[in-house]
Amino acid sequence: MRIGIDVGGTNTDAVLLDGREVLASIKTSTTEDVTSGIVAAIDGLQRQRAFDPAAVRAVMIGTTHFINALVEAHRLAPTAAVRLSLPAGASLPPMVDWPQRLVDAVSGRSYLVHGGHEFDGRHIAELDESELRKAADDMGSAGVRSVAITSVFSPVNAEFEARAAEIIASQLPDVAISLSHEIGRIGLLERENATVINAALRELAAHIVDGLAASVTGAGITAPLYLSQNDGTLMDVDFARRYPVATFASGPTNSMRGAAVLSGLDTCAVVDVGGTTSDVGVLRQGFPREATTDVSVAGIRTNFRMPDVLSIGIGGGSRVRGDAASVTVGPDSVGYELTSKALVFGGDTLTATDIAVAAGRAEIGDPSLVAHLDRDFVRAALDRIATDVSDVVDRMRT
Questions:
Q1: 16 near 60, Cβ under 8 Å?
Q2: Virtual torsion, Cα 356, 358, 361, 364, nearest 10 deg
Q3: Using one digit for the tens of pLDDT, what is the confidence trace for 230-258?
Q4: Picking from 19-28, 248-257, 351-360, which range would have the lowest pLDDT averaged per residue?
Q5: Do 182 and 167 form a contact (C-beta atoms < 8 A)?
Q6: Model confidence, pTM
Q7: Contact assessment for residue 164 and residue 178, using Cβ atoms and an 8 Å cutoff
Q8: Domain ranges within the chain, ordered by starting residue
Q9: CATH class of the domain comprising 79-196
Q10: Which residues touch 118 (CB under 8 Å, ≥6 apart)?
């Protein structure tokens, strides 16, 4: 048996599988600390279909912890960016194109050092180890806890990044170090950005992964724990601690992979309607189509592996405003408070879920609580949602 858990911004979904057969499934509200929601989900599976925890062979989790931390600029470690590029590459320093709030959130410090390679592997300049040691001293004094090292054309030759990591680790043995050639692709600034993001999340990753593991073992399950990653495959917890950016698109990726299994189609477009957003992606031979251009994450251009997904701020918890002549849906959402805020649950906020229930498109909550809604207004809201989603699907086709 295996357990699959997907932690979204609104709901945490869990399934108990025996091979390809679903033995039990449950949907619970995502909690603020997320891990307690996972415990509740596993308990719900146990109540629905009693199972021996020792019989579980693997637990697979998709989580939004890390992308949320970046978007919210919260719980990011003090981070330094070291670029090996001098005498070239000094005109645009690290984090030059970052939103200021994120630079502040990571206490961003940058260092330019001699080194790097040409596109054919030749040295731009020899690595200056004394510059690196001086930079490490400054990092230690500034309280830096994570370091991102980027060298020009390191995907072609990573020797300078590896040596720089050895030097910094020798002076700052407790800092986490991320190397750009392991994270991004050709394209210096975008690869550097991805590496700095990864470095800023390393500390949180260790905390979150340990928390997820504790929530699983607390349920008596000793099976290996895996996290889903951007390309539709799984990674073990040690990999997740080192590369938290690999989880950024795990939510829509999980949905797309699930759609392939349930529909029997391996090449198709998938619309994943969540509580906050609807994500549209394309499957090719059962796996998400990979983005071939730079991907913007929280306003930062990156080039690590991400699925080609477009998101729109329409979901089950999206707030609905206006009248039949001028209706808006989203992009703000009540999120995980849907079951207390939406009208059909006795709340005071009109949401897309209320519109769906009033139109007879969904059976959830108490329909009598939305019976007063104007029919023309409900139709206008449905038309607005359909138009916005179809526009995104058309963009993915082209």
A1: no
A2: 80
A3: 888 899 999 999 999 998 888 778 888 88
A4: 248-257
A5: no
A6: 0.80
A7: no
A8: 79-196, 318-397
A9: alpha beta
A10: 124, 152, 153
